[in-house]
Amino acid sequence: MKQEGKIILFISLLTIAIMGLAVFFLDRNQSQTAPDQSLLETTESPQLGQAEAAVTVVEFADFQCPYCASQYPSLKSFLGSQPEVRLVFRHYPLPQHQNAVPAALAAQAAKNQGKFWEMADLLFTRQNDWAELASTTEIFENYAQELGLNLEQFRQDRDGSDTLNQIYADKAAGNQLQVNATPTFFINGQLAKNIGNDLFEEITKALPEN
């Protein structure tokens, strides 16, 4: 009887352990596949496309990141051909990029005057012109003037604490989502597996007709 009791106890403990592991992996899988929506976008996040689009792509990006810059033109072109896809931009300046935060500040300041994407175009396409500068103040103000922005308002918004807080709030959200590189994409809340042309195929598969 003692031997049978030990066997029953062992089986019971093993069953509990297996159930515990199952719950752990289920919870972890759910957290990976269904992140908190508030971490993916906010009402302040710059958006490109229709609000009611069937597919939402969230990009965590760094304006000084070469890979982000190389991906940007083809991404915008793809979005232009896909009215059912919406892009949400989140800032994720990497610490090794000294001008990533100033660039993000310039983009956010331009957003306050309705020109976020126009400034993003300049920052990405002219990245080589400013990435290694000791100071980006003059060149980013030149971009603001090129876009017809009110320069005084641009300066106030760029230097305001609210603007910096927005950028760091984006990065904090990215950290909670385990973002550690740029660009990182989420498609309808799911972490994308690809970048480049493979990313576009992945987005296309998420469309309703597919």
TrEMBL record:
Check the record and name the Gene3D superfamilies matching this protein.
Answer: Glutaredoxin
Instruction: Provide the alphabetized UniProt keywords.
Output: Disulfide bond, Membrane, Oxidoreductase, Redox-active center, Signal, Transmembrane, Transmembrane helix
Q: Which residues form a coiled coil?
A: none
Q: Where are the transmembrane segments?
A: 7-26
What Pfam families does the annotation carry?
Thioredoxin_4
Recorded GO MF terms: oxidoreductase activity
Q: Does the keyword Signal apply?
A: yes
Domain (Thioredoxin) spans 28-210
Is Protein biosynthesis given among the entry's keywords? no
**Which family is this sequence assigned to?**
Belongs to the thioredoxin family. DsbA subfamily.
Instruction: Please give the name of this protein.
Output: Thioredoxin domain-containing protein
Origin species, per record, is bioreactor metagenome
